[in-house]
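Q: What would this chain look like folded?
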Amino acid sequence: MLYSDQFFREKLIDLNRDPCQTEAKVWVGVALAAESDPRGIKILKEAFDQCLLLGEPIYSLWSAMAIKKYAPLENIQPLLTRFAMDQADREQNFEDVSISAKKDEDLESVSELMTSLEGDELKSQAAALAFDWSAYDVSAPKNRIAPLLSAFNESILNQLLNVLELKNMQAGDLIIEEGEESGGVFWICSGTVDISRRNQDKETIHLATLGSGALVGEMGLITRSPRVATVTATESVQVLVLPAKAYAMMDESREVVHNALSHLVGRRMLQNITKFSPVFKAIPPEGHPELLSQFKAKVVPAGEVLLRQGRPGRGLFLILDGLVEVSSLGSINPKWLREGDIFGEISLVYDSPVSATCTTARRSLLYTLKPDKFKKLVSRYPEIQHTLAELSLFRNLDGLYTMT
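A: My prediction, written as structure tokens:
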């Protein structure tokens, strides 16, 4: 693949404006390597080292995977081993990776000389800036982690790194399409993507814009259910892919990866709920880690009755992925619970029979909290019970959950 002069000119402008524009440096290396220019591999090797040192693991891994793709004879195993040693068993965090729309840059502020460069002279200028890391402060690394990858020990992480693939997507390309079967998990190395889904009226609703460091597609891989949203590249995007076929062929480590994916998805969902749910907002931030640790992930087949009307409650349920039908005696039309919905807490708090039957309509991934653990939570934070007392059955709260 050949990159245009305009591409290199844009990266040169970025690096002149900000010598610490790491993403632009790696892009220059990728573009030159794609053209079989040896300067590209040299830049990528330096970027791998520097990004690991600076605490930018996604850019470091992107550099290594680009070397693997464009210089297949290069032995990158030492790089992957170093990456695994650096990132293995790191504590996971779940920072919001949503980003704001980019503003148009004023190119007139850049010198006419720079914008008039062409061909190899232009590439040489860009390569020189991409290889120069002297402006960085190595004494203050960012210490970021690679989403999901940092959850594994060194051995399993090495296995994963060796099956990852680097792909380039253009603006408008569908990385994930709602309704399709899972093709894998995607890490966004560079560029931005839009997340959208269709509502009941078949209208497309924009959910978020994500950038470098975001992880998408994990839900479909662990539930083997159709995709629940569409992910579209808004510009040229580089993504790392854990293909579903490679995941399926993993040996005993697949269960470890599956559990880590379930844990990551569940904790992200629970953290959102502790921010926005009127019930769990009563729990102070210092109590969130304990709350999150009490939930357990469970994949449930279609047709399983989770709660039965008139029976005692079996716990608190959070739908990470799936569809649950809610029906009760005397009702004509069932209600439906989807991703992000919580149900089961009212019967637990008031020690009363369940008011409706809840049945999985398709294979679903749930997070569950047992009755005894939920009651301990309520006893520690009585504000929760006070909030629940003001709620009615099946009332949606902020669009996040429904009571049963």
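The CA atoms of residues 57 and 146 lie 6 Å apart.
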